[in-house]
Amino acid sequence: MPKLPSSSRSAAAGPAQDVPGRTPRNRRLPAHERREQILDAALHEFSERGFGAARMDDIAARAGLSKGGLYAHFGSKDAVFQALMQRMLLPSLLFDDRSPQAPARLSRTSLAAQVDGFLEGAYARLEDDRFIRTLHLLIAEGPRAPEAIAGWRADHLRLLHEQQAGMRRAVESGVMRDSALTEMVHLIHAPILLAAVLKMLQDDTHVSGILPRLRAAHRRLLLELLPPESG
Amino acid sequence: MPKLPSSSRSAAAGPAQDVPGRTPRNRRLPAHERREQILDAALHEFSERGFGAARMDDIAARAGLSKGGLYAHFGSKDAVFQALMQRMLLPSLLFDDRSPQAPARLSRTSLAAQVDGFLEGAYARLEDDRFIRTLHLLIAEGPRAPEAIAGWRADHLRLLHEQQAGMRRAVESGVMRDSALTEMVHLIHAPILLAAVLKMLQDDTHVSGILPRLRAAHRRLLLELLPPESG
Amino acid sequence: MPKLPSSSRSAAAGPAQDVPGRTPRNRRLPAHERREQILDAALHEFSERGFGAARMDDIAARAGLSKGGLYAHFGSKDAVFQALMQRMLLPSLLFDDRSPQAPARLSRTSLAAQVDGFLEGAYARLEDDRFIRTLHLLIAEGPRAPEAIAGWRADHLRLLHEQQAGMRRAVESGVMRDSALTEMVHLIHAPILLAAVLKMLQDDTHVSGILPRLRAAHRRLLLELLPPESG
Amino acid sequence: MPKLPSSSRSAAAGPAQDVPGRTPRNRRLPAHERREQILDAALHEFSERGFGAARMDDIAARAGLSKGGLYAHFGSKDAVFQALMQRMLLPSLLFDDRSPQAPARLSRTSLAAQVDGFLEGAYARLEDDRFIRTLHLLIAEGPRAPEAIAGWRADHLRLLHEQQAGMRRAVESGVMRDSALTEMVHLIHAPILLAAVLKMLQDDTHVSGILPRLRAAHRRLLLELLPPESG
DNA sequence: AATGAATGAGAGTTCATTCAT
DNA sequence: TATGAATGAACTCTCATTCAT
Q1: Residues B169-200: tens digit of each pLDDT
Q2: Are B180 and A76 in contact (CB < 8 Å)?
Q3: pTM to 2 decimals?
Q4: Which of C19, C43, C75 is the last residue of a domain?
């Protein structure tokens, strides 16, 4: 029986040594750049292995310095995590402000264009590995960083409220129909979250097969329900 | 920067010692029962702390035996996790088969009833702590148990395919309208996943405030798009 | 690093599960037979893995009963070891009394015959796996069982003294020459010990190639030095 | 039956705590020196208790660092053992090259001198505790480190072949007699192995009483058989 | 700022031994 | 006697953190 070293490391996940010293040890980097490199490395390791299983050694190696050097920038593993959460959850990471709102005087054509702009932004973000990793980390380890999460929560609520208000105005001004979607903007975003979770759980080939169809159906949904009744 | 005591244990989760000897050490249980107890305990500990931070001691204590005794039933922490995933994902996790399908000859009334049945089942499950825990664990630690996940994937795909086929038949037979929802059943389920993720991330008071409104809007969405054109 | 299950078990030695339940669980065997079976199993496991690494489970399984059953016969792992040593070191395990001695009136012919008898016995024992295992165990773990070893020591000394006395008489009576070999009988046995140790350390093919040549040279040595000068 | 306390620890060997902090914790030693200290400590512990019963804590303590520090130098207990075997077996363990060979033009006097040199080296090594420990470890735990052993095997065979060839040349050039000893050099070394094994198994007082006599007889054996017939 | 040897508190795992059945 | 679930004390190994250099 081959000796499996420890059991707290997934057999499925490749060892971090496979990507040794991604950054080739640039000495004495400006502190700010180093912090960014470290947080990039931390995002990778945390989302790959989870907070508990990620090792400071691996984060340091991926950031191109030694474990000791890492501690010159962050006082603890938790500090790295908190800082990462802070950076991740800067406004509009999960949602940007391009979701269909209601600028004055909106022709149907421009509504379709706006929907397409929204979808383009949202589904493009799904292709960004960092976005998926971030969301995964948020879901998986969020409860570990309640304060950081609190910031995200507030942000998230504010954005949704703004969008909801915009919807309401759009309906009142007649550029959008009153529908389930304008009643709860959550419904507009739900398919994107679904897609993101699928990317976390299903294999890539299946997801990349489904994504375009999901996007098309999502577009159809929005264009079926958002435009005003007549025209 | 405040120094966190040990850093690898969540500050949010209370220590397991707070609930000592939950099961009062029933000696010599039939192996089958013990396994169930252990998996129950494991679900609790894993979802509370994550796989990495959960301790075999705590799982054992919660299951009412010693750590050594635990190892008589599962050869490793990973094995516990695998078995847990196996057991959890037997009944299709995210969906049951009550989502709106198309029995022959369906009046609009019965479609509404069917929609309500679907929503009732889905949103009731959201109130089940075990469901949320399980889904959280699936998302957070899924990649750790690729084989167990593979089973879930297959299940999930099969169910979706069946539902999609049902939708197609319903459209062809005229009991449902051709819409974004019938084109991609995913869109029907997306709001529920959104709700589940909100439950994981937002505080309970906010979520319980939103949930009924989300459910109402979800219902409205389905009833706006599913029924056939005429009526 | 692939996860190796435990580290205290040699990767080179096959797991004991490979030979599961060598004896097919005969229930309620006479105590004496069971003890013998257990000691056989223990000899195998101890010599294969060493005392420390041998497991009571494996010994029990090899003996055809459960761990609990084993403890009905021996109170502890040490007790098994002690009993094994006792049994192993019954007189003349390592040496028998056929080494060349001096019966009255010994022609040179019969000396050669006696040498051959001695060699036959000694080198035949080298082919006996149990002999090699026993000697290996004696060397490897002897210090663990000082009392058992004490018995062997006494035996060993007594036998050598007898042989030495026999040699002296043979020289005095003129049937053997006074030589290094008669001065120290140890020298007569040394090549056999060498062969045994080689069997423990070198690979079988090499040893089986060397053994006949060693035996021939050993024979030549004895016949060169033991017979009286003239004739 | 007297119950032995823990049973997996030899009653004969004193606990390592009796010699606490043998090395007074020199912090930050160069890695190379530390490795040597660790291997020294490992030789002691392994040979005292056997591989299985030796504890990493004790090895670390004896080497003057903490258990964790030990693992910075060797990845596992097995790795320590392998490295130890490697180091131990570099200089040919059992034989050096001073065994009687045949330099050109060798008078009988110088042959005797050469024999004495050989015996001096061999029996001096028997007084070296490290030699006995090493040999004991090789016999007792050799099968655990097949790769390390492979190196030793090759070495051992090479040395014997060279000696054998030297013997053949010595016989052909007439400086040695053709005898059992020149036919198989093993016979020359056998008494030394016997002495070593006796040191492992018999008590010191007995062995130190026998050793000089064995050495004398060994000398006599060589001088009786090696010199050429004439004189 | 950076390095990496060293620490030390666990955590996972093993296994001799016990004991209810 | 026999079974095998259960115990608990070790033991190996890990890793966040410290600190001499």
Answers
A1: 999 999 999 999 999 999 999 999 999 999 99
A2: no
A3: 0.78
A4: C75
